[in-house]
Design a protein that fits this description.
The chain has 90 residues and is an alpha+beta fold. It has helices at residues 3-16, 19-23, 30-37; strands spanning 27-28, 44-51, 54-64, 75-83. The chain has a 4-stranded antiparallel sheet with strand order 1-2-3-4. Strand 2 and strand 3 form a beta hairpin. The longest helix has 14 residues, at 3-16. It starts with a helix and ends in a 7-residue tail after the last strand.
Length: 90
């Protein structure tokens, strides 16, 4: 999985979770993306997510094989997300 493809899939997962609509453009750590690119099927990870104003929270994803021969490498599946305590404390 190339870093560009992975970043595109992560942005898509964040969009499905409604994060850009609430916080603007979401950014991911380059080192997290590089490590994730070396991951294997079934890997579940949490990634820190940030916007222009700072840390937003954590995105939970899983890598899986979509079964589509046209897909390049593994697919990012959104498992959920959690806001940082100082973003939306109750």
């Amino acid at each position: 999985m190339t870093p560009d493809n992975l970043l595109q899939q992560l942005r898509s997962a964040a969009k499905r979770g409604g994060l850009p609509q609430a916080f603007g453009e979401i950014a991911f750590d380059a080192e997290d993306i590089a490590r994730l690119g070396e991951g294997e099927e079934g890997l579940q990870v949490s990634l820190l997510i940030a916007s222009a104003s700072g840390k937003v929270g954590v995105l939970f994803i899983e890598l899986y094989d979509s079964g589509n021969p046209g897909d390049e490498g593994l697919t990012v599946g959104l498992r959920g997300w959690r806001l940082a305590d100082d973003v939306a404390a109750i």
